[in-house]
Amino acid sequence: MTKNLLHTIMIKPEEQPIHPMDVSGLIQKIQEGYTIKRVDKHTTKKTFAPSTIAFGHGECPRYWYLAFDGQMFEDNADAYSAANMTAGSLSHARIQAAMMNSKIAKIYKDDEGEDTTEFKVRHDDPPIFGYGDVMLDWQGEELLGEIKTMMNEGFEYRKTKNKAKSGHLMQLLIYMKIFKRAKGVLIYENKNNHELLILPVEVNDHYRRWVDQAFDWMREVRKNWENQTLPTKNYRSNSKICKSCPIKKACESAGTGVVKLKSLEVLGEELQMV
């Protein structure tokens, strides 16, 4: 009797079908939580942001002119995009904590007095403000590091080609120029499996000319804003850059503009042909 009872208890029950509970709309409700606090707001930019300067609308002189004027910035991020950005921020914090634990990172204090590897980046001419990810102490040298996360396909491409994304490289070079560092590293993480890829960056003549042109471009854009000389449009309104621009509506209603300024990406392409 006891043996049979034990045998009965130890038999793994068959998997039961999913309970017919009504959960329709639950996923949508969870996704709402990602975007509910992401709202449109009026913002006046006072400085160029290195994390934006070489990406999409950040390459557009008209965007910065209007942003310096102050505009209503629309947040068009969907639940997936918002979740992706949150995951990236959490990954940054985890990697930074790992570098502090392994004692290879310079430690700063954030505004709340907590330890961090992040440091403020400031420059007056042109006006630039941002946050660098880490200063690394590696083999007796101080390396300026920038952390980026990406999905497996992009990561594997960077790994195979041993090539940084141009916008990431420009961001790092801006920091290196401001802090007068000759060596830095781009730290890529694969979002799928947390694999790391380190791409070393050492300033050479090509990089120096490229980042110098970017600084000159920012100065020219800022000067045009100070003189209230609105740049003309460099892109079609249905272009990928315009569609994702947070101040697209303000741009469409701002007028045609009076001066033609090249986009930053064009300057970079021209430099690479030298």
Topology:
Layout: H1 2-10, H2 26-35, E1 41-43, H3 50-53, H4 61-69, E2 71-73, H5 79-101, E3 108-109, E4 115-116, E5 119-123, E6 128-132, E7 134-138, E8 141-150, H6 152-161, H7 166-179, E9 183-190, E10 196-202, H8 205-226, H9 240-243, H10 248-252, H11 264-272
Parallel strand pairs: 8-9
Antiparallel strand pairs: 1-2, 3-4, 5-6, 7-8, 9-10
Helix pairs in contact: 2-5, 4-8, 7-8, 8-11
What distinguishing features does this structure have?
274 residues; alpha+beta; Lambda Exonuclease, Chain A; 4-stranded mixed sheet; two-stranded antiparallel ribbon; 11 helices; globular
Structure characterization notes:
This protein is an alpha+beta fold and 274 residues long. It has a domain at 46-210: Lambda Exonuclease, Chain A (Alpha-Beta Complex). It is 43% helix and 18% strand. It contains 11 helices and 10 strands. It has helices spanning 2-10, 26-35, 50-53, 61-69, 79-101, 152-161, 166-179, 205-226, 240-243, 248-252, 264-272, and strands spanning 41-43, 71-73, 108-109, 115-116, 119-123, 128-132, 134-138, 141-150, 183-190, 196-202. Strand 9 and strand 10 (196-202) form a beta hairpin. Helix 2 (26-35) packs across helix 5 (79-101), helix 4 (61-69) packs across helix 8 and helix 7 packs across helix 8 (205-226). The chain is globular, with a radius of gyration of 24 Å. The mean pLDDT is 89.
